[in-house]
Amino acid sequence: MAQKAIREFTAKQLLYHYLPLYLNGFNQKYQGIAIDADDVHRYSLPGFQNGYVAKPDELFGKRGKNNLIYLSDNADDILRWIRDKSAQTVTVLRGRGDRGISGKLKTFLVEPKVAHTGEYYVAISAKRTHNELYLSESGGVDVEDNWDKVITVQIPFSLEAKPLSEDIRKELWGRLQSDNRDLLIDFASALHQVFSFLDFTYLEINPLVIEDGQYHLLDCVARLDDTAEYMNETKWAPAQVDFPKPFGTSDSEAERKIEKLDAKSGASLKLKILNPNGSIWMLTSGGGGSVIFADTVGDLGFADRLANYGEYSGNPTTDETEAYADIVLTEMAKSSAKKKVLIIGGGIANFTDVKKTFTGVISALKKHESMLKKDKVKIFVRRGGPNYEAGLSLIRNAVTAMGLPIEVYGPETYMTAILAKATQALS
Amino acid sequence: MKQLFSTDTQAIFYNEHPLPIQRMLDYDWLCNREKPSIAAIVNPNRSGMHKTFFGSAEILIPVYTTITEAAAAHPDADVMVSFASMRSAYATSLEAIMTKSIRTVAITAEGMPENQTRDLIRASAENDTWLIGPATVGGIKPGAFRIGNTAGSIESIIEARLYRPGSVGVVTISGGMSLEIYHIVAQQTDGVYEGIAIGGDTWPGSTLLDNILRLEADQGVKMHVVLGEIGGTAEYEIAKALKDGRIKKPLVIWVTGTVARQFATEVQFGHAGAKSGADDESAQAKNKALKDAGAYVPASFNDLGKLIGKVFSEHVSAKRNYREPADNGYRLPPLEFADALKQNKVRRPTSIVSSVSDDRGEEPTYNKKEISTFLNKPFGHLLNQLWFQGRFQKPARIFWNTPLKSWPTTVLRLQPHITQSSLHAQVKIWLTRLQPGCLPSAPDMAVPLTGLPDGHLNQWQPGFPHAILYYR
Fold first, then answer.
1. Taking CB atoms and an 8 Å cutoff, what residues of chain A touch B174?
2. Residue to substitute from B192, B263, B265, interface A, most A β-carbons within 10 A
3. What pLDDT, on the 0 to 100 scale, is given for residue B77?
4. Is residue A189 part of a domain?
5. Which InterPro entries does the protein's record reference (chain A) (predicted)?
6. Is residue A245 part of a domain?
7. pLDDT in tens, B307-355
8. Which residue of chain B is at minimal alpha-carbon distance from A161?
9. Which of A93, A348, A421 to mutate to test the interface with B (most CBs of B within 10 A)?
10. A389 within a domain of the structure (yes/no)
11. Which chain B positions have a beta carbon within 8 Å of A2's beta carbon?
């Protein structure tokens, strides 16, 4: 539903397949090999004349600085390195001041080593009315430190995959200095055509190496617009495009269950467990509203006790809501927090039927009655929208009948007011 | 800058969706509009008339197959409200943008490819057309015009006093949160002057700032209320406009998504544009930049309502020339019959009495059984209820199913020369013969009734569709 990062391997497969269409003299085959770390013992690498480069392919950059690029002339060495690295938990720093992200590496990329002298930087980024092209003759790992040397030009947006205009080519030619500037401009022009043609939203080649008139794309970061997937099935086919999750995303079983539920449903169902032993559990609705509920818990100073972020919206059925609430409550039961509150919150819905969705929530609450009683869970409700009066009275009566404390509010009460009450109950 | 909507604005509605069409017309009625806000409907699959209600009167709205035709017949309709699907939204919106008489296009479709939206943005700039959306519920100009489903039910519109204009311009990203904000604004101020939800995509057709500047130029707007979101840099443009004096009216804003700091990895929230990750796109950074630029920014969403009230009373209602907007009341559109029936507010004598079928309740019944119960059952089940009031047991029902299903093939076997159309004609004739009384008096026993328990043969009686067995 948005701009999504793809693996370097995927991006390069697309680029090596499509660049020959637009770039004279570019006719190399892509030689990279994607390696699944779980299966590393089953790979045997082809012989590369100048040796191998291995690196993780998990959507994060700065691999050199994180010591995650390995060079060797020996194929067994390369595979051993991958086996060792994938067995460890590694911490990756993604920038200055980053607290880092840890996880196990699962996907690697092995490519032929290219001996080279100069490194170039080429990147294209989609903006609202134009594409921005970045070019630098001082590419490589330190491009950010040399950002003043990067030339930026704006290319007016067009649905067609157009090459660079004469004006832009002239401007670039005037601003670049190296002997390879014609080749570099040709490359940028062709890259821009591929960028437009395949619905890229971001593409960065760093470094790009030009040796003896041959281009080598050493490293590449790319994002595609996944909403264009339905029209690009054929165009993206050379790479079998998928959108992996960012490195370090460890999904709990509950999150995976909700993801499956979401995929099957026409409505939107999301869950992210922040703290499995948290005190504040949320059954919030609405894409915008649910974020505000989570925000406000943080603003009240209870961020560390917030257990989950989640949302159900787009008028889910009673059954879907029940299944969703059931999964959240199951996780809530596992939490070791001494005091627990449940927030059933939402804004004033345009068309989600409150009675219908609350009927599902109530069935799940009944299923978890013993847990709610044992943990003395306090429930806070705030919701508006179609049939809200019926929905609110249903949930009030059902929970009261279970002998549990509940506070119920409608649209006349400020949306996040229940959070102040809930956090008071905790302290 | 021009106003998008007035009490005379008429729209061309793309795609024949009866519910949002009726909701727009009910809103027109509620705020005393003289003529309906929809002049024409475009349905690529048919032309003709669409029957709907304006108040209690049934009216016909012309339906065309293309936007060009509709616009030519209704040159005064300068808005297109598009309920096109995600796949057809691009081509149809582009056609609307290219149509001279259409000045505003509101797109509800979710999940449009970004390059298609960017091309619409390019085309709309070249043709001076205003875009709202995609991926939004739309917007509302109280007392004048409502886009599609904006602001929900009539009750919530009345509660948020959206039937008459106030003096606060509201711009949000989220369509889902827009009604909540209109509600807060109605509680804290004299009400909403115009509310626009720009939609959560990466490249909305008109940005937060585009809409704020349009409302800034509108005499009716005395202050702005804006709800931004984590991700993107649109809010920095607002900060810039505050600094360089393009926005002079007081502006209250809150950027949601401060919680993203709790997430270690990048998180995609509910909207495509709402992505955590880059530091300068964080909610905290944007809230701070806006505050530094002179916007009124609360400490938390919790305080947003109070802050709106404070800014309104200090900077709007305290002004000497301030006048409370007129409230001429509203007229409630009549209840839908089904809703009224549910609430026990109406009753209606029947015009035709049938001992078999009955459509007085929420759902029509056949022999006191809701017709939906027949949907997934074999046809013999329905036949049993309609002709025999459910007297037959399962084996008999199953028996009828067999000939009913195999009719056409049986006929083809017996009369190989028959054509498709004459087969249909024959089946039709048989169906009319299935009336009790005009059937052969005895079954053709040449057809072996194997599989049917003996006892069931005792149930032959007048009215049994002998023809089925006869032709079997």
1. 286-289
2. B265
3. 97
4. yes
5. Citrate-bd, Citrate_synth_N, Succinyl-CoA_synth-like
6. no
7. 999 999 999 999 999 999 988 899 999 988 888 887 788 887 766 667 7
8. B115
9. A348
10. yes
11. 202, 268, 272-273, 275
Query: Do residues A36 and A171 both lie within one domain?
Result: yes
Chain A nearest C-alpha distance from B311 (Å): 18
Whether B176 has its CB under 8 Å from any CB of chain A: the answer is yes
Query: Is A10 a domain residue?
Result: yes
Give A385-427 pLDDT, tens digit per residue.
988 999 999 999 999 999 999 999 999 999 999 999 999 999 8
Share of chain A above pLDDT 90, in %: 81
Q: Count how many pairs of residues, chain A against chain B, have C-beta atoms within 8 Å.
A: 187
Q: Which residue in B200, B259, B274 is closest to A298 by CB distance?
A: B259
- Domains delineated in chain B: 1-135 (3.40.50.720), 165-325 (3.40.50.261), 349-404 (no CATH)
Dump pLDDT digits (tens) for A317-337.
999 999 999 999 999 999 999
Residues of chain B with pLDDT under 70: 1-2, 263-279, 350-353, 378-379, 392, 395-472
Mutation for testing the B interface, residue in A231, A272, A295 having most B CBs under 10 Å: A295
Burial readout B206-245 (b: 16 or more C-beta within 10 A, e: otherwise): bbbbbbbbbbbebeebbbbbbbbbbbbebbbbbbebbeee
Average pLDDT over chain A reads: 93
Which residue, A216, A239, A262, sits at the end of a domain? A239
Residues A80 and A210 in one domain: yes
What CATH number is given to the structural domain containing A327? 3.40.50.261
CATH number for the domain harbouring residue A102 = 3.30.470.110
Whether residues A411 and A326 share a domain: the answer is yes
Q: Which of A249, A268, A415 sits opposite B270 (nearest CB)?
A: A268
CA distance B178 to B24: 17
pLDDT digits (tens, 9 = 90+) for A11-58: 999 999 999 999 998 988 999 999 999 999 999 999 999 999 999 999
First to last CA, chain B: 76
Partners of residue B254 on adjacent β-strands: B227
CA distance between the termini of chain A = 40
Tell whether A282 and A383 lie within a shared domain.
yes
SS3 B412: helix
Does B119 touch chain A if contact means CB atoms closer than 8 Å? Answer: yes
Q: By the CB < 8 Å criterion, does B159 face chain A?
A: yes
Q: What ipTM is given for this predicted complex?
A: 0.93
Q: Name chain A contacts of B111, Cβ cutoff 8 Å.
A: 1, 227
How much is the pLDDT for B425?
A: 64
Claim to verify: residue A185 and residue A302 sit in the same structural domain:
no
Active-site position among B50, B183, B271, B466: B271
CB contact under 8 A, A298 and B258: yes
Indicate the pTM of the whole model: 0.85
Say yes or no for a CB contact (<8 Å) between A415 and B203: no
**Coil, helix or strand at residue A308:** strand
Q: Are strands A214-217 and A200-211 parallel, antiparallel or unpaired?
A: antiparallel
Q: Which domain holds residue A279?
A: 253-426
Q: Do A359 and A418 reside in the same domain of the chain?
A: yes
* Residue B456 designated active-site: no
Beta strands in B43-124 (DSSP E): 48-54, 57-64, 79-82, 104-107
Of residues B318, B73, B330, the one with CA closest to residue B190: B318
Mention every residue, 6+ apart, whose C-beta is less than 8 A from residue A243. A4, A5, A6, A224, A226
A354-367 helix and A388-401 helix, angle to the nearest 10 degrees: 10
A200-256: pLDDT as tens digits:
999 999 999 999 889 999 999 999 999 999 999 999 999 989 999 888 877 789 999
